[in-house]
Amino acid sequence: MRQVTDIDINKLYEVKVEKLSNLGYGIAKIDGFVVFIPNSCPDDELKIKITKKNKNFGHAEIVEIIKPSESRIEPFCKMQKVCGACQLQFIDYESQLKYKKEIVEDCMHSLSLKDIQINDVIPSPEIKEFRHKIQYPISETKESKRMLAGYYKSGSHEIVNIKHCPIQPSYCDKIIEFIRENSKQYNVSGYIESKHSGDLRHVVIRSSAFNNKSLVILVVNSDKIKDKFTKLAECIYNNLPNISGVGINFNNKKTNLILGNRTDFVIGDKYIYETLCDKTFKVSANTFFQVNPKSANNIFIYIRDYISKNFNNPSILDAYAGIAAFGICMSDTASKVVSVEEVKESVDLANEIINDNNINNIKTICMDAGKCFSEMANSDEKFDITILDPPRKGCTKESLEYALKLTTKKIIYVSCNPSSLARDLKFLTGKGCKIKSIQPFDMFPHTYHIENVVIIDR
């Protein structure tokens, strides 16, 4: 195996890419030394330049594609090479699904989780115009003060000014372009991050796959409403179709967080409506809701069908519930559902949605999940099924311990991160659980992200 000291920065090497990492980089080896290469595809034969190295691995950039993989294609978006949003768009879609399954397998095998049934990835119903939450950072040019809106260039805070993004509904391009063209007449400037100056930091659009209506949220570098913000919001609402409402979010802190704590709706409705499992959901500015509703619907139907085929009116614990989407979608198959969420705004909205859908077997609890689980365990409350849908970092060991105590039959774990999922499954199998199956879903086409639903036998 070649030693790290033998690998020279800026030296050229010829390699063949073996597979993708869980962050979407191609992995190649130089006499056993591992190198990560962005924008590369398994079976690419490449000339690369080492850009960075440490004791265990290095990073490189492509100098020349000597022989492209059969999976390599021309991206359908002209901005793919500079925009950081679609890392895998240069790989044909069927191969993307194959490589994503391999990413899940590698994460499981890395922790010796073998002999687990990992199914083929269920594709997204749409691979264009599927993204229904758009968050564009805003800035402006130094001299002409022309407004810029788009995604960040990979690995930077340099905005790629995007006029057309094919993974989001086309009317969202028109909304962004209208804001670019009309902000100046109301003296609304773009945000300059280095100086923490200017007005408009982000434009957030929540669009509905159900009826094509949109909420537009103007994130401003201010702590109070200003007349110019109100006039721009009214202009957007009055001149564009598809707009349900326009709000102002206030964020004047030096932070990477997009939204501040307060949103005031200036005009129109503060919700759009979406459907999952024939249930109607309200989605507002700060509501967590999957960006690809049609692929999300596949996940909810998959879980609902599994429960209905294998249980007769079970009791269900919906943990990390958000707006209780899982509980609401599973309510038709359950005797009772208890949904636990610590954010009061989400719980209040969940209760509205439950009432709107005439559901009477869901109890919502607004409490920190760990504290709630502790109280339940002390009272000997039990559930046939626990659904875990944690954030990307996964569950704490404490939460997993409580899930074991509270569940009598099955844990259904929904994860957007194969690495933290593998870690948590390792913990659960160490406690005697058995992994029945892992079903990957492609929620984010053209990226390395992959959603997984795991059926765990308690």
Summarize it.
The chain is α/β, with parallel strands linked by helices and 458 residues long. It has nine helices and 22 strands.
Main features:
single chain, 458 residues, OB fold (Dihydrolipoamide Acetyltransferase, E2P), Rossmann fold, 3 domains, seven-stranded mixed beta sheet, 9 helices
- What is the level 1 CATH name of the largest domain? Alpha Beta
- CATH architectural designation of the largest domain: 3-Layer(aba) Sandwich
Main sheet overview: 7 strands, mixed
| Spatial sequence of strands, sheet with the most strands | 9-8-7-10-11-12-13
Number of domains: 3
CATH topology of the largest domain: Rossmann fold
Q: Averaged pLDDT, please? A: 95
Number of E-type strands = 22
Unreliable parts: none
- Large-scale geometry: globular
The CATH superfamily label of the largest domain reads Vaccinia Virus protein VP39
- Alpha carbon gap, first and last residue: 44 Å
Structural class: alpha/beta
Number of helices: 9
Radius of gyration: 24 Å
Characterization of the model:
There is one protein chain. With 458 residues, this protein is α/β, with parallel strands linked by helices. It has three domains: 4-72, Nucleic acid-binding proteins (OB fold (Dihydrolipoamide Acetyltransferase, E2P), Beta Barrel); 98-125 and 292-457, Vaccinia Virus protein VP39 (Rossmann fold, 3-Layer(aba) Sandwich); 133-276, OB fold (Dihydrolipoamide Acetyltransferase, E2P) (Beta Barrel). Helix content is 25%, strand content 31%. It has nine helices and 22 strands. It has helices at residues 93-110, 170-182, 227-239, 293-310, 325-330, 344-356, 369-378, 397-406, 418-430; strands at residues 12-16, 19-20, 26-30, 33-37, 45-53, 57-67, 133-140, 147-152, 159-161, 200-207, 214-220, 243-250, 262-268, 272-276, 279-283, 315-319, 336-341, 362-366, 383-388, 407-415, 434-441, 451-457. The strands form four sheets. The protein has a seven-stranded mixed beta sheet with strand order 9-8-7-10-11-12-13, covered by helices on one side. Strands 18-17-16-19-20-22-21 form a seven-stranded mixed beta sheet, sandwiched between helices. Strand 19 (383-388), helix 8 (397-406) and strand 20 (407-415) form a beta-alpha-beta unit. The longest helix has 18 residues, at 93-110. The two termini are 44 Å apart. The model has no long low-confidence stretch (mean pLDDT 95).
